[in-house]
Amino acid sequence: MAKVHIVNHTHWDREWYFTTADALVLSDNCFTEVLDELEKNRRAMFCLDGQSSIIEEYLEIRPERAEQIRKFVEQGRLSIGPWYTQTDAFFVSGESMIRNLILGIRDCKKYGGYMNIGYLPDTFGFNAQLPTILKNCGIDSAIFFRGINFENHVRSPYFIWKGLSGKEVMAVNLVKGYGAAAFLEDSEIYINNKLLPITELIKAKSGQNEILVPIGEDQLDIVPDLPEKLESISTKTADSYVISSYEQFMDYLRKQDQYEVYEGEFREPCLSRVHKTIGSVRYDVKRINFILEQKLLNRVEPLMAIARANQITVSEKLLNKAWKKMLETHAHDGMGGCVSDNVAVDIFHRMKEAEEIADGIENVIAKRLSEQIGLKSNEILVFNTLPYAYTGYKKIQVVAPSKKIRLIGHEDAMILETKYYPPRDHVRIVDAQGERYITEPAYYKLTLLCKLSLPALGYQVVTFEENSDYQENELHPADSRSIANEFYTVTYNNHQIELVTSFGKQMKDFIVFEDCGNDGDTYDFSPLEGDRPVLLSLDLDQVLKTPVMQQMILKGHFQLPARLSERLIQDGEKGALDIELKLSLLQNVNRLDVHCKVDNQIYSHRLRAKINTDILAQEAIASLPFGYIKRPVLKELPADWKKHYVEMPIDIEPYESSVSVEGNGYYLTAFAKGMKEYQMIDDSLYLTLFSSTGQLGKENLIYRPGRASGDTTRQGHEMIETPMAELIGELEFEWSLQAGSGCFDEYQTAKTWEEYSLEHISYQSQTLNKFIFRLDNKIQPRELVRRSEPQFSLLEIKDSYLFSSISPSLYSDAALLRIKNPTGREVNLTDYDFSRFRAVEKVNDIEEICENQDFIIPPYDTLTLKLSF
What we know:
This protein is of the alpha+beta class. The chain folds into three domains: 3-271, Alpha-Beta Barrel (7-stranded beta/alpha barrel); 482-756, Distorted Sandwich (Beta-galactosidase, Chain A, domain 5), CATH 2.70.98.30; 795-868, Immunoglobulin-like (Sandwich), CATH 2.60.40.2220. The chain has 14 helices and 48 strands. The strands form twelve sheets. The chain has a ten-stranded antiparallel beta sheet, with helices on one face. It has a six-stranded antiparallel beta sheet with strand order 25-24-30-37-36-33, with no helix packed on it. It has a five-stranded mixed beta sheet with strand order 4-5-7-6-10. A hairpin with a 5-residue loop joins strand 42 (802-808) and strand 43 (814-821).
């Protein structure tokens, strides 16, 4: 006889084909019933899906229920947290996952505590570093559903899951899902058709005397009188069914021994779909999320630390509000993109609000610092948000009456972009002298590129002057078909882009584009039967050169089948696809930077960049949080794949920031900003730009046979059109390529990404245009003591380390500095200057002080230091 732990729960999608507002209305009914049942039945227990955001929103409309929630949480009868939202595990950054846990745990503590389990019941697969992230937040166990293969990964659903760092968590897989025994009732039909089959299956797989069976479903209410029903069911079966919680079951597992150990990701679509091609769906959501993550992590948070050291205060609650608005989109449906257009509208609005908060914080800090320094109108405040001294190229924004300016001491500065503002008549001025009208003179907004040396995590002032004799250094057209620097020569020849490296490697037909129809939906790309991909080559438009930078611009205008139905018709309706590709080489920079604009007027298709690596690689090396993973290149699909998988096990895979291949004595790496999907075919690396679709869920796809995902073919549902997911209009893409002799190097790849993703922050105190920075027009000037110097550094570590983040403490007047080590070698932090802080403590990611206070960073791990002001 086995003891069966029955966990009553609800899986709460915050949004899906319904909106967050819809879910809030449902929560008013569902959560209230849960609390009423827990009050009535002292033996009842319930799990509110492991995310604190839904509690926070419920209590906004039911604040009188807060004490009741706290009571049940403290009694161990109501499980909440630890996440703020149930994160996607592939398309958000590792830092975002950490913030998700930090904010969720902090909020749950207000209500009595949190479920100390990394509970993700419906996420579409799991990255190999989730154990490391959980353990660094004080969590030693995980419960999940999708992506497991009981033939290749482990035999039992209860095992030890080890991260690349070596840190381990106790793991539980929800065999057949979180709803395998949903809608519990004390009836022979339920017992025989639902409960016993899943119970026997888990018993057989686990070999344990006690097993776990969840009985929840999407937005499902609590089962009334559950303890009494389970007692009755136990009399009718050979097993003992007891009401339990995930925590209680984990306590049982921890007391057992002899578990299998697995290291790696869970991404195989064996028992459930993981939607392997969802990485290219709703690219616009993934792109804006990447931009916002970069703003918060590499702009706003470091600026807040610099500001605090200069007695400029900005509430960390503003920052947390921006994070929470973004994290609301990090659940699997939102970040994956398998949502309705109504939800997509909400997502973009939240991201817009979060970005406005981020921009506003940056604006306030830069303005106040400029006042403290006494910044003149011909001076530019330039920031370095890395914790080490930086020497390299920076983009600087200048507003001036003339283009003929020079940065003093930086004669090689070049103009990247120019915007001219013509004069305006009848411009009103209101000041202490009264009201008057003037003619506002013309002026320019210039973006300059300049090589600077900047102090670590700080700023310095750069001065410019107008000089009518100064020769403007701008990109000028060149009579050439090639561009070059010390590392690469790119030539356009015979309608092909050719790359030659400094170590002698030649790659012909280096970049082309591939387009094909998409018969899939917002869950998956799927090819159209009978359709064949077409390759699109671009024509040379112009070559631009300066001593600092060289650019090649290529363009292509293509007439393609306008809709999916036209793909198989000889003379069907055509639509336009315009592609502009800008290739840039900087002096002394080992990267080929790529900027791509696409004007898409084609429906239901996929566009990819095909990069000729000339390497017949056996595996690709993809970045993931704080490390890299090697994935085999699929040579051919198993002939009987439909017997073992519920969707095609295609090797279309995700990456956090880069993907590499190596062989023949060299390597090639692609870095991408917001693009999240790759595939290696023969010697070509395919980077998916986007796949577009007009349906939320379709059935019987080539890549995903059987039922439609997304409930659209369930009884009582209807098909849901998603015209916004067609991505009609202009789209922007950025990636960079690096080739090198020898083998792929984890450290060097991470360092190159740091340089490529560098944020450029500058500020000018000027009155020609008070809307260059949106809040300048309304931030009232202050009479401040001029206590800040024209150069400042908050702290410094050696530039051989790798920065992850610096953020305000949630609990004290301190900053949390996190350094990462995405390599297989241990790193010891020995070279640093924290003299501006009164105390330095090693903590975990939720600010618990570590027993071991050494500053060692294990392989594929991080070090978090709490620096007290």
